[in-house]
Design brief:
11 strands, hydrolase activity, alpha/beta, two-stranded antiparallel sheet, glycosidase, binds calcium ion, 314 residues, I/U_nuclsd_hydro_CS, Nucleoside hydrolase, binds beta-D-ribofuranose, Inosine-uridine Nucleoside N-ribohydrolase, Chain A, single chain, globular, Inosine/uridine_hydrolase_dom
Length: 314
């Protein structure tokens, strides 16, 4: 049974990734940690708690983490995900509260206590993970696997011409993780994969609504603002779901249809901030990451519809 530690800057696609994991009876979520990114930290924590409650996930501890990137000021994605990160649909406050433990301490604790047991799924800027890594350089080896939603390996970006949001938001953190990574242990799922294989078209949205469950309605409503942005600003025929794709890769690695190993460095330079260009020449440094390039679109959507068809709470 996959046992997860999920690090998230919960906005609307993170929320769907949380639902995907929480509604899967074959998955355990040992903890959720939150980080500033899509929204300021208190909202990320609020949204994570709301999502877990909607999935009826039981007592999953939520640990609040870093409120800003390591060196950069916080730049949120509220123009895409809404002021509250969840499409501004007026969600009521969650009943639960975060634990008193800092996310970085929780990550270090869990990884030390349960070596080789947990899969870390990182869905936001890598600030918490990098801060933990600086305190324990062997951190990544303590996980069964690490899957991050990050990067734009073809250099088509969403926050700049060439950079993806999570890499751009805290490039120093991303580079700290990249430097400590090995391709057998750490997988990066770029933004491009969701644009190719996880576009929720109007027909998919219809299917989603037709499921008739409280969680399907919730997933649909919180992503309406993103859908509007994706179609009007980026010209996509629907909206894409980057974090749920990364979650699907963690839960069902067999959905990956194309991947490569490459050496990736994250650019810290002003003009190319957050760029994650793989060096595929094989003549310089050894690969440090496994990069997912494509997933099985039908398999991904079936997993999503299955999970969201399972119910949850309104
Ligand atoms: C990533 O940035 C955020 O907008 C999403 O939640 C996802 O983690 C995509 O670039
Ligand atoms: Ca995210």
């Amino acid at each position: 049974m996959p046992d997860l530690l999920i690090d998230t800057d919960t906005g609307s696609d993170d929320a769907v990734a949380l639902l995907l994991a929480a509604l899967d009876p074959s998955v355990r979520i040992s903890a959720v940690t939150t980080v500033a990114g899509n929204v300021p930290l208190p909202l990320a924590t609020r949204n994570a708690l709301i999502s877990l409650e909607r999935a009826d996930a039981g007592a999953v501890p939520v640990h609040e983490g870093c409120g800003r990137p390591i060196l950069r000021p916080l730049h949120t994605g509220q123009e895409v995900h809404g002021e509250d990160g969840m499409g501004d649909i007026g969600l009521p406050d969650p009943a639960a509260a975060p634990s008193g433990q800092h996310a970085v301490d929780a990550i270090l604790d869990l990884a030390r206590r349960r070596p080789g047991e947990l899969t870390l799924v990182a869905l936001g800027p890598l600030t918490n993970i990098a801060a933990a890594l600086l305190r324990d350089r062997s951190l990544l080896t303590r996980f069964r696997h690490v899957v991050c939603m990050i990067g734009a390996p073809d250099m088509v970006g969403n926050i700049s011409a060439t950079a993806e949001f999570n890499a751009w938001a805290d490039p120093e953190a991303a580079q700290i993780v990249a430097e400590a990574a090995t391709p057998d242990r750490v997988t990066w799922v770029g933004w491009d994969v969701s644009r190719k294989d996880a576009v929720i078209t109007p027909a998919d949205q219809e299917r989603l609504r037709g499921l008739g469950t409280p969680v399907a309605a919730f997933a649909h409503e919180i992503n309406r603002k993103v859908a509007e942005w994706a179609t009007t600003v980026t010209g996509l025929a629907g909206y894409d779901l980057p974090d749920p794709v990364a979650m699907a890769v963690a839960l069902r690695p067999e959905l990956v249809t194309d991947s490569e190993e490459a050496h990736v460095q994250v650019s810290l330079a002003p003009g190319t901030r957050g760029q994650t260009s793989p060096d595929r020449r094989g003549v310089a440094d050894a690969p440090n990451l496994a990069l997912v390039r494509r997933v099985d679109e039908d398999g991904f959507k079936a997993l999503l519809m299955d999970a969201l068809g399972r119910g949850g709470r309104s």
